[in-house]
Amino acid sequence: MSGRVVTTDQIHITKNAHQINVVLRNPEVNTHSDAEPHFHGKPLSQQGHFGEIMKELDRMVGLDNVKELVFEIYALLRVAGLRAEVGLTAKTQVYHMIFKGNPGTGKTTVARIIAKLLQTMGVLTKGHLIEVERADLVGEYIGHTALKTRELVKKAIGGVLFIDEAYSLARGGEKDFGKEAIDTLVKAMEDHKNQFILILAGYGEEMERFLQTNPGLPSRFPIQLDFPDYTVDQLMQIAEMMVKEREYALIPQTEIKIRQQIISEKQQAEAETSFSNARYVRNLIEKAMRNQAVRLLNQGSQQPSKQDLMILRPEDVKLERKTAKETFKTL
Ligand SMILES: Nc1ncnc2c1ncn2[C@@H]1O[C@H](COP(=O)(O)OP(=O)(O)OP(=O)(O)O)[C@@H](O)[C@H]1O
C-alpha cells in the first residue's frame, strides 16, 4: 500500500490498484476554467450530487482547514468502503464538532455543506440542518427544557443539530435550565449514536471557556475547527464573488469604495469585537443593489441599458453603521 500526502490544496490517496485523487483548486493560484477541480480522475461537474457539494465548498474563499477536513472525512469514508470490500473492519467514527469563530466567518454555511456531504456518503439519512440557539432549547419550568431539547434532537435525526452561541447554555451555572439542556444533549448523543451530528458553534474564546468549564464535553467532540476572521483581501474576493453570482458588476472606483468601507467597518467594529465578516460584505452588496435600483428609477424615463442594470457605482456603496448585534442579525 502506498502512502498518503496531504497538502492544503491537494489530497492524494493511493491504495493498491484503486486510486482516489483529489485536487482542490486553490482560489489564489488556479482561477482559469481549465483548473476545474477533479476528483478520482473526473471533473467535479461530472460527479453528480457529490461533485455539486464539493464545488460549493471549493467556491468558499479561504477556509483551507475546513476544506482539508471535509476531504479527510470523504477520503476516510471512501477508504472504509474499499476496506469493507476486502473484508476489513470499517468502524464508524464520531463526527460531532465544535466550530469556533466570529460572526459571518462561514460556520453555518459549512455546517450545511457537511450535512449534505455526510448524507451523500451514507452517514446521515437526511442531511438537513436544524439551527437553534439557547431560547429554542431552554424552557420555563423543570422538565420543560428536556422536553424542548428532545423535540429538537428528534427533528435533527438524520441530519445536523447546529447550536449557535452554545456557551449561553452554561451561562446561568448549575441552577440554570441551560444545564438541563446540556445534560439532555449529552444523553441524546449516547441514545442516538450516529443518527445525528451535533455541532456547537460560537466565538472562539467563549467556546474555549465553555469547554474548560464542562470537562466532560471536549472528548465528545473529536473535531474542532477554527474559523478565522477574513482578511480585507479575502472579503474583497467574497464581495466580487457575491456580485458575480447576482449578475452585477463592479467598476474599479466601486471596488475602491467597497475596500474602504470594509477597512473602516473592520476597524470600528473590532473595537467592539463585533465585525460580522462575510455577512457584513453581503449586507453591503445587497444594500448597494437596492441603492442602484433607486438611482436607476430616479434617473427619469430613460430606459437603463443592460450595462446600467449591472453596474454598481461607488455612490451606491453606503451602509449605515449599526450596533454590533443589529449588524450581524440583519439577515
Ligand atoms: N468563505 C466564504 N466565501 C464566500 N461566502 C462566505 C464565506 N463565508 C461566509 N460567507 C457568506 O457570508 C454569509 C454569512 O455566513 P454564515 O452564516 O455561514 O456565517 P456564521 O459564521 O454562521 O455567522 P454567525 O455566527 O453570525 O451565525 C453567508 O451569506 C455566507 O454564504
UniProtKB/TrEMBL annotation:
Which terms are listed as keywords in the entry?
A: ATP-binding, Nucleotide-binding
Family classification: Belongs to the CbxX/CfxQ family.
Which is a Pfam family this sequence falls into?
AAA
One Gene Ontology molecular-function label: ATP binding
AAA+ ATPase domain location, by residue? Answer: 93-231
* Keyword Isomerase belongs to the record: no
Name assigned to this protein: AAA family ATPase
